[in-house]
Design goal:
Strand content: under 5%
Number of helices: 2
């Protein structure tokens, strides 16, 4: 009997989900925000302001 196999799989899956969720909370750089804004607006963007320092929980 392999009792540890399902536990190991669930542990690895849980760690992967937590890792992916943690990566989504990283604040993007100012250059990345500028590029995204220019793409969405279709106009050149001179500066980015009013960016929150913390990600809301």
């Amino acid at each position: 009997m392999k009792l540890h196999s399902p536990v190991t799989r669930l542990t690895l899956l849980g760690a992967l989900i937590i890792g992916v969720a943690g990566c989504s909370n990283i604040k993007p750089s100012e250059d990345h925000l500028k590029t995204l804004s220019e793409t969405n607006l279709g106009e050149p963007v001179k500066r980015i302001s009013n960016v929150p320092n913390e990600v809301p929980v």
